[in-house]
């Protein structure tokens, strides 16, 4: 009897996917899916209204497959029942994750730092945004770099990996220090100490100190890191000795979350020595560069123009 029902259901689903079912057969599928959906146990406290959530899942699938007109209404109940099945196996929507209070930490014109509940320290660049739970629970420590750049000093805990989401990539560590630089065009992960795994779009690379991962144009690559980035210049005074102006500008971009515009690219090769205090404002550093180079750096919001 069970085999007969299974084969009949598979037959009707296949027929429906090809648009060959009659109205009566579509109603039969709908009634069956709705019946199974009603038998499922739904926790309103952390899963929300079942009708709304199943409709949201239905709409999401429609958008993903791009076949709104031919999509079958009964599938929203199958989708909802499938969520409950996966929930029962512990794949996602775990209550202890949903109940975690999320905090958003933002910076304006100067970098700032924060210490998380596990002892990890995050040094956030200017004009950046970072999200984290008030207290870590479960078997992972998950946070998000929403905008900008940061330096991470992750407290070691082998039983609870530390995972950072930044754009389309995920960085997974146990205890280490590294930079993450997130822009609209790409995302970089630069390792200073320890080992790091970076993954995204079905690709994965492992990094050790002096290496960086670059995710750009849907491609993830590994390469040697610039030595200038192998230090936490958010929290330390840094002297850039006989360094090109281009490299100085690159560090200022990441530390202060600004972009530079210049007409004469030849000045970027100019060598100079610059001292950057850990708590210096961008304006103070630019005044120093103006004096050394006789150039004129002016700040316009998040854009620095060079005359």
UniProtKB/TrEMBL annotation:
UniProt-listed Pfam families: FecR, FecR_C
Keywords: Membrane, Transmembrane, Transmembrane helix
Domain FecR protein: 113-197
Signal peptide start and end residues: none
Domain Protein FecR C-terminal stretches: 239-304
TM regions (residue ranges): 74-93
Protein name: FecR family protein
InterPro entries on file: FecR, FecR_C, Ferrdict_sens_TM
Record organism: Flavobacterium chungangensis
Gene3D superfamilies reported in the protein's UniProt record: 2.60.120.1440, 3.55.50.30
